[in-house]
Amino acid sequence: MTLDPQAKAFLDYLKSLGGAPIHTLSPEKNRAGINYLVKKTTIPSQPVANVQNRLIPVHDGKIKLRIYTPEGKGPFPILVFFHGGGWIMGDLDVVDSPLRAITNSAHSMVVSVDYRLAPEYKFPTAVNDCYLATKWVSENAHLLGGDAGRVAVGGESAGGNLAAVVSLMARDCGLPSLCFQVLIYPATDISRDYPSRSKFNGYFLTQDDMRYFENHYLRTGEDRQNIYVSPILAEDLSNLPPALVVTAGYDPLHDEGKAYADRLKEAGVDVTYYCYEDMIHGFFSFGEMMDKGKELIELIAHSLRSMLSGNN
Fold first, then answer.
1. Can you give the residue range of the structural domain that contains 206?
2. How many separate domains does the chain show?
3. Active site residue 216
4. For residue range 196-217, what is the model confidence (pLDDT) as tens digits?
């Protein structure tokens, strides 16, 4: 399938900005750059019934959560969401507009997690932050107007990696109980290369960028083999929550996302797999320039409504 014309227009727009490649810049400059890009290309912000920022304790510090609540009476199902950005960039603001739209369309509470970033905080800090945030949300759901029996996790790219890992950790630790995972073009295997990494090198994401992210995130090369870095390496993927796994056809991460969906299915996990064949990495965040980004937001919301509907 040929590249979507809107995706091509987005790539042309990026080229017109004349910015230096991600892997040549400092994390600080990349953080400013992604915030600028998302501000220019994300969907318009929707009002929701309530938005609340909370600080919660984690190992050696505190992190911020942003809690979105829809109209109506709870207790609401909850999606705990982890933003993308290669573990080194991104924040609550870069996913603010899509998460507002999901809150309204899914009629679900959404909790966005401001996990600590590399290289200041290397693996496993982000993993532990996201797990502890999910555990905190589950334990305090009744105070927030949420339903602890209907908690899902989700994320895009590096955030999709973290959502997959948190699902593993929750199963391995026995807490919290999760009922769904949303993995948007996730990184699932940093231990080796896949054909899509070279075939689609340069469609927004490059191999040099990915090595840059990984080198900033990981402490040593041995971390690549850790199942909480490369969840596809886990011997046992059974008894994990049902999953929506989304990939993009022109994404270097396509093959490992598809491989993880296949492994989950083989382990008996209920998986809905969807590939946007003509899309590029990151389109969830750039919905104002790519209509498929809006479609993906609605797909996620529809999946959440179906999986988390319960008795509400």
1. 5-308
2. 1
3. no
4. 999 999 999 999 999 999 999 9
